Amino acid sequence: MAKRACGHFSSSPLTVCVCLISRHSHNLRPKRHHAFSVFIVYNCAASPPPPRTYKPCFICQDKSSGYHYGVSACEGCKGFFRRSVQKKMSYTCQRDRKCVITKVTRNTCQYCRLHKCLAVGMSQQSVRNDRTSQKKAKKEDEVLKMAIGDTYEMTAELDAIVEKICRAHRDTFPPLRQLGQYTTRSSSEQRIRLDLGLWDKFSELATRCIIKVVEFAKRVPGFTSLHMADQITLLRAACLDMLILRICARYTPDKDTMTFSDGLTLTRTQIHNAGFGPLTDPVFTFAGQMVPLQMDDAESGLLSAICLVSGDRQDLKEPSKVEVLQEPLLEALKIYSRKRRPSAQLLFPRALMKITDLRSISAKGAERVVTLKMEIPGAMPPLIQEMLDEVPENKDDSQLSDGRGMRSST
């Protein structure tokens, strides 16, 4: 049934979840057993984007404009490298000199960007021999200055994006002050491999949270216009990032606790025993680093949306369309954050750097699921497994028909 509803896509729990939420967004009420049969209409025959002439930029993976100074590079990295060499710039890294350079994060650390330019083979000698005039270099600097924006005017279009994202974030993620917090006793006050009681509660809450993340994604401007396969790819890739962002927003530093969507508040030890295991300390460290940023609902929602709509995810059918959706989100976060706190000009790049940290933690999450599967009795809840692991494409549809993949959607 799901295959007829969504074309040739596999009826994975996440696909069903996306279809169900699309149905509810149109206020339609079909019969129970046909919940995801007729309500998604996607253009599955959309023509793919034209093949790229060059390999992606060796430095940031953006679209390459050709070979510059010995390697395939985009215009941005070409210009950055040329200016750095010509002006003999000396940069410093505010972290550990291991910043991951991508299209999104390339402007956050000039030291690591230049280091990567050299590491992939860009030639300083080629720059010195370049006969590009100073006039042309000055013109490119002016273009770059316009791109990063010295004036931060919130256009009506960007203002509408901020409003939509903020509302979607609030509707799917109530703030800590609105929750009636409660605690629970666990079988151990020490770290153990797994507390099955806490795991059962955590897995139930996590499934609900994943559904809320899908609801949020469907309200990100332009997301539902993407190819259905790309929607699923983006949700699979970013869901854990977004879940971590959300739980860390409910971190209480003085108590070292985190609060879940129903108000359940757990200590660091309890979260470890609930299934986080070795992920616990990195997540709590990340939460502590987010506190000084003091991000509001609009900024948190925009950062989540930027994590979601990322054109560098693997296996996207139409990455160029994803990149187009991300650009106004980046611009909205940059302008909104700088207008909200004019004295905190570094908040925007620091927020983007957190995406790199999130991806690092998510990679560890994929490793954690391997050991977790051996520790829990029975099967892992389908939505959680799909977020942390690749679900086989030939999964039996019987798992969907008996409701195991949908029990928390009601």
Automatic annotation (TrEMBL):
The cross-references to InterPro entries, in alphabetical order and at most eight, read: NHR-like_dom_sf, NR_DBD_RAR, NR_LBD_RAR, Nucl_hrmn_rcpt_lig-bd, Nuclear_hrmn_rcpt, Retinoic_acid_rcpt, Znf_hrmn_rcpt, Znf_NHR/GATA
Extract the ranges annotated as region (Disordered). Answer: 390-410
The reply to whether Cell cycle figures as a keyword in the UniProt entry is no
Q: Which Gene3D superfamilies match?
A: Erythroid Transcription Factor GATA-1, subunit A, Retinoid X Receptor
Q: Which residues form the Nuclear receptor domain?
A: 54-129
Classification via SMART domains = HOLI (SM00430), ZnF_C4 (SM00399)
- Is the Ribosomal protein keyword given for this protein? no
- What would be one Gene Ontology cellular-component term for the protein? nucleus
User: What subcellular locations does the record give?
Assistant: Nucleus
Q: Which UniProt keywords apply?
A: DNA-binding, Metal-binding, Nucleus, Receptor, Transcription, Transcription regulation, Zinc, Zinc-finger
Q: What is its main location?
A: nucleus
Q: Which GO terms describe its biological process?
A: cellular response to corticotropin-releasing hormone stimulus; retinoic acid receptor signaling pathway
Q: Which CDD domains match?
A: NR_DBD_RAR, NR_LBD_RAR
GO molecular function terms here? nuclear glucocorticoid receptor binding; nuclear receptor activity; RNA polymerase II cis-regulatory region sequence-specific DNA binding; zinc ion binding
Q: Which SUPFAM superfamilies match?
A: Glucocorticoid receptor-like (DNA-binding domain), Nuclear receptor ligand-binding domain
Q: Where is the NR LBD domain?
A: 157-391
- PANTHER family the UniProt entry points to: NUCLEAR HORMONE RECEPTOR, RETINOIC ACID RECEPTOR BETA
Record's subunit section: Heterodimer; with an rxr molecule. Binds DNA preferentially as a rar/rxr heterodimer.
What is the similarity comment for this entry?
Belongs to the nuclear hormone receptor family. NR1 subfamily.
Q: What is this protein called?
A: Retinoic acid receptor beta
